[in-house]
Design a protein that fits this description.
It is built from 14 helices and 19 strands. The strands form five sheets. Strands 1, 2, 8, 9, 10, 11 and 18 form a seven-stranded mixed sheet that branches. Strands 13-16-15-14 form a four-stranded antiparallel sheet, with helices on one face. A three-stranded antiparallel sheet has the order 3-7-6. Helices cover 35% and strands 17% of the residues. With 527 residues, it is of the alpha/beta class. Helix 12 runs parallel beside helix 14. The N and C termini lie far apart (54 Å).
Length: 527
């Protein structure tokens, strides 16, 4: 089977769907999603989207820019920060026009109810209760499903980007003229590989939280975009900066971990250890509203010091009715496991949450591969630097989708459909008889990354992680050459690739900065 389209969108979160809506008036659009259209990282975003609006009399762009730069530990791309934050009001207008329902103030329905989260100097977080991402995803899914120029393929797994390599040409990294012609995708319903040819391809595949044992990310977050671009000889950057969310619900029987939004601390909740001590002021003068990297390390230290699996988030002093009104889903979730957040403290633990690095893009959303654009968590835009400021992720996703849509519209007709691209060839392969090889390797990969490449790292841990991972990589590549494609095998291969990139980047950065903390260099920075 072959599909030709003007625009191909890989991924169905905010970045992918907003890009599709922007370009759909100028050509045919094909969206592929490896599960259902609404099963994305966007859907799991609780907190909201950060934006300085005209109605924010006490806030301004510069304050938001400064907060972002501080959270990013001094290594943000200032031009990217300024561009994204100044774009924010337009992003909100688009989301509202597409049907997103943000909460309004009770006493003034003409203004949005704004939350404050860690690292922010003002209340500037637009939200829909405590499930903002779900509301955004709902609105966009309805919009794209009804658009006449958009075709959606669910249960299509992107396997590899198509470049000149598939025409028999040598392609090297940092080569300036690599071109993307589309993607090979596995139809998960009939197990056939489809060739999709496109003039412009948007990569919006999200992050890779499933690389770790404890994560807030859904099972689809397996780093597919990172791995595909690296295999295609594209550029990735800043992969060492894996942000752990400080407060995931501690519930060992559940995976992924349920997220306890940072907005609860903005609302007044307090972190406490098992001795009932409010410990955050010992680590940072901003206390419970310090940036995520600082809070995560503080919790990690308290847990290790006391030999605990978790700390607590205390909401008992807050107005019970207001708490339930603002955080209904968290209230119901905790109640389902016997915790009444108005009376009981919530057990929480850090969990892998967001990749601040990724596929390198310019200020227009172009990757190092021509006619391949990227937006959302799969990218390294420079906005986040070493540590993402809370609620800047949804903003970045829609902003870069818009930037990329403008250049994709201009550039798509430069690129022809390459009909000479061969179909996928799996001759000589067979169905895997030993699925235990894949499942066990996946467990080992996640254990390696969690134990050695987590919140706190060291030279010794990274070396051991690399050596252990290399063995699994060699075994998996041999298996890949011998067997027919499956989702589990492809995801394992991608996670190993991402793990390698994280370890490689972490080994190279001989300093502690942002979300990358090296025990060998606790306060040392490169000169």
């Amino acid at each position: 089977m072959r599909i030709t389209t003007d625009y191909l969108v890989i991924g169905s979160g905010l970045a992918g769907l907003s890009f599709a809506l922007k370009v759909a008036e100028t050509g045919t659009v094909t969206i592929i999603s490896k599960t259902k259209l609404d099963e994305t990282n966007t859907s799991y975003a609780q907190g909201g989207i950060a934006a300085v609006l005209e109605t924010s009399s006490s806030d301004n762009f510069q304050k938001h820019i400064d907060d972002t730069l501080v959270a990013g530990a001094g290594i943000c791309d200032k031009a990217a920060v300024e561009k994204v934050i100044e774009y924010a009001p337009l992003a909100i207008k688009d989301l509202v026009s597409w049907g997103t329902q943000f909460d309004k103030n009770e006493d003034n329905q003409d203004t949005f109810d704004l939350h404050r989260e860690g690292g922010h100097s003002n209340h500037r977080i637009l939200h829909h209760k405590d499930n903002t991402g779900f509301e955004v995803q709902r609105a966009l899914c309805e919009k794209v499903r009804s658009h006449k120029n958009i075709t959606i393929y669910e249960n299509f797994f992107a396997v590899d980007l198509i470049t000149q390599h598939h025409l028999g040409n040598l392609v090297k990294r940092h080569q300036g003229d690599i071109k993307c012609y589309g993607v090979y995708a596995l139809n998960l319903e009939n197990h056939k590989v489809v060739t999709i040819l496109a003039k412009a391809t948007m990569l919006a595949t999200g992050g890779s939280g499933q690389l770790f044992l404890t994560t807030t990310n859904p099972v689809v977050a397996t780093g597919d975009g990172f791995a595909m671009v690296y295999r295609a000889k594209g550029i990735v950057d800043n992969m060492e900066f894996v942000q752990f969310h400080p407060t995931a619900l501690y519930n060992p029987s559940e995976s992924p971990n349920f997220l306890i939004t940072e907005a609860m601390r903005g609302f007044g909740a307090i972190l406490r250890n098992k001795n009932n001590e409010a410990f955050m002021t010992r680590y940072d003068e901003r206390g419970n509203l310090a940036p995520r990297d600082i809070v995560s390390r503080a919790i990690d230290n308290e847990m290790k010091k006391n030999g605990d699996d978790h700390v607590y988030l205390d909401c008992r002093h807050l107005d019970a009715e207001a708490l339930k009104e603002h955080f209904p889903h968290i209230y119901e979730k905790c109640l389902s496991i016997g915790i009444d957040i108005t009376k009981d403290m919530i057990p929480v633990t850090p969990a892998a949450h967001y990749f601040c690095g990724g596929v390198k893009v310019d200020l227009e959303g172009r990757t190092s591969i021509k006619y391949l654009y990227a937006a959302g968590e799969t990218t390294c835009t420079g906005l986040h630097g070493g540590n993402r400021l809370a609620s800047n992720s949804l903003l970045e996703a829609i902003a870069y989708a818009d930037f990329a849509s403008k250049v994709a519209i201009k550039e798509k007709d430069e690129n022809e459909w390459q009909h000479a691209i061969p179909d996928w060839n799996d001759e000589g392969t067979s169905h895997p008889e030993e699925m235990i090889l894949i499942t066990q390797s996946l467990k080992e990969v996640r254990q390696i990354l969690s134990n050695y490449v987590g919140i706190v790292r060291s030279e010794v841990r990274l070396k051991r992680a690399f050596n252990r991972l290399w063995t699994i990589y060699s075994e998996t590549e041999e298996l890949y050459q011998q067997t027919k494609l499956s989702r589990k095998l492809c995801e394992l291969r991608n996670l190993i690739q991402v793990g390698y990139l994280v370890i490689k980047a972490a080994k190279a950065r001989k300093e502690s900065v942002g979300a990358h903390y090296m025990a060998d260099y606790p306060n040392k920075k490169n000169k």
